[in-house]
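P.,

For your records, the input lines for the assembly:
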Amino acid sequence: MRQINTHTDTEESTEEEDEQTNTRNRCSECGGDVYRDDSQGELVCSECGLVIDDTNIDPGPDWRAFGSEEKKEKSRVGAPVTNMMHDKGLSTNIGWKDQDAYGNQLSERKRKKVQRLRTWNERFRTKDSTDRNLKQALGEIDRMASALGLPENVRETASVIYRRALNENLLPGRSIEGVATASLYAAARRNRTPRSIDEFVQVSRIERKEITRTYRYISRELGLKIKHANPKQFIPRYTTELNTPQEVEIAAKELIDDAAEEGITSGKDPTGLAAAAIYAAALLANKKLTQAEVGNVAGVSEVTIRNRYQELLEVQDAGLVN
DNA sequence: ATGGTTTTTACTGCGTC
DNA sequence: GACGCGGTAAAAACCAT
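Structure tokens returned:
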């Protein structure tokens, strides 16, 4: 009896978050109005183009439900719609095994029939050039995102950006790969998990010049209004790669904050600032790193670190007086 | 295309281990 | 002598116009 009670208790107390967190929101980036684009199933900022909130892709039950009993029954069925497949994962897939749904072998006639179905299904699935284009681009986005360790929601954002570029006819004259790379670069920055151009050069087949050129182009044409990357966003990855103690990481972030308040960070390469902050923080913590070490993992020259970290320390000295 | 800003490259001298 | 560091000038890259 006791056992039964506790069991049911835990079961009923799960999943009671029906907060409607949307429609009249402010964009976290630029403060613009956010509206819901139902055709895509995502929140879009009217100011800066788009805001993907991954909690919003598949938020809950499909229909209105009255009471919690009904709510349980009418939950959504099937995989969530995703932008990462060129048909958003909604198409039919025919298995490759020559078995029916019960696992029995198919007869010779049925097998041929299914084979024909597979063929036609594949033809329809990638019917026109747009679909083939998307298919290839999304494959590239996925590949690069994996290589750079970018999470799912960044890939989703990149997919959306790419679709928009495609819809607005920005592709002609540009390579699919280039636009795919630029889309992912933009998406990574938008979602506050930026990667440097250098890192993209490592994993993309596109050379640096074209990545930046294409990024500028689609960013302008789509009105993405992406803010400059915050140097702090690079620090954790660098410090873990350098195996520095956590105090250094924290101190480095504070150095960035202080510098940002003084306004000496604008126009400067964020990776350079991050590297300098780490170097300076390590110095202050008596946990020395060489400029070359930090420069290597951040992809920044020693000269830049020198210039930046002295500026950072100047701010600190001035701050102590105040 | 142009000019202003920032970063990189390459080289230097200095002190330390 | 090798290494880490600081400084510098010129080249290269970047960015807005």
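Two observations worth noting. Confidence is low (pLDDT under 50) at residues 1-24, 51-74 of chain A. The CA atoms of residues 264 and 311 of chain A lie 8 Å apart.

Regards
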